[in-house]
Fold this protein.
Amino acid sequence: MHNDTIAAIATPPGVGGVGVIRVSGSDAFELVLPLFKRPGNQTELPPSHKLTFGHIIDPDTREILDEVLVAFMHAPHTYTREHVVEIQGHGGPLILRRILRAVLAQGARMANPGEFTMRAFLNGRLDLAQAEAVMDLIESETEAGQRLALQQLRGRLSDQIQQARHAILGVIARIEASIDFPEDDIPTPQPEELRPLIAEAQKLVSVLLAGSDQGRLYRQGVRTAIIGRPNVGKSSLLNAFLRTERAIVTPIAGTTRDTVEEAANLRGVPLHLIDTAGITPTDDPVEQIGVQRSRAAAESADVVLLVFDGSEPLTEQDRLVSAEVQQMGFGVQASNEEGTARKRPVLLVLNKADREQKIDVSELKQLWPDSVFISTSTFSDTGLKQLEDTLTDLILAGRMLYSESVLVTSTRHQEALRRATEQLKASFYSLEQNVPLDFVSIDLRAAYDALGEVTGETASDDLLDKIFSEFCIGK
């Protein structure tokens, strides 16, 4: 149901100076007004979009629940394009729950996750891409990611999608007009007329798809596992990236017995760093669990920083760790979604460069012939900037850093663009094979619908439910 009135706490769980309860629906004013007691016992509806001081009272006992500021906002000039009331009270969880219970007792329904934003979408205030950008904006981990989400919220991605759909629709219209209205002597369009029109649409889609891998990096970040035998300086490297003492560092081997995950900002890309326990044979059951978690972290990582102690000769444990990382698919040929060969990135870090170097680099090069080596010292900061620069190059793979161009950040959007591209290619092939134009129109219509999934114009109810269920309650 989307014609009832919903309510929820809109601020995050926990204690804060201010907490907000949001109410949206046709009966929002009628439900909240009886709970709102103002100085002088005023009963008329306050002015729209202005904060009004008063108290929220329990409707049964007349007990004052909190001192509040309330905004009554008339549709359609609201987030949901419905009547909206926002109650700003003190940010204690008990206070907010009691106010919410009072609103629900008046007849409101508890909002589902993302239901306020879903109503904004259903009521035409936002398209689906803009609605998804709301959560991206909230969850942004870097300024670059925040700017991309704001671009999408302002409709820049939607505008480009609509340009591509309009170009495709123009071709469909020319084909179908000649088929549907033969009595009007509309000439049948020839392949040489249609090819440049389809190519124009394909170019618009290709530009968006070309930047989608980079866009996803800024949104989702990169999981980077720091792997190595015990006491090679993995935790020190984590602290150096974070520029804070997050992980415990001691000269004693095996200090880290579990994985430690933290996020760093690498030139605008969220870097999800995983400091792991040293991978080593052990009979200690606790250490065994730590080693198992380290292996799992490495297997799920996008990039591995394989750390060695440059002040010591290469050990058998170093060789075993190298072999394990290679078995996981890092530094060896693999296949991506397009079926083309690639290498899962691994970067070799020769740590403790401030000490006399005893490691056999030639043997390392035999173990890792195509990998990049960086010498670092977390004690003297040697090589740390070079490590960040090299890691940035490795992650972005030659792509330019964020610019003001529109970048697709969603896997869902990327998949829709890929399907649109395939259907446009199929329409070209159909033209080349001189098949009836009805079949060309089918391919073009499929591309048109695929792009419509991005903005929500052809999205199914199941897809909408899935997307908005990932939102927090109150948004």
In short: Residues 228 and 321 are 6 Å apart (CA to CA). The chain has three domains: 6-125, 134-211+409-456, 216-396. The longest helix spans residues 156-180.
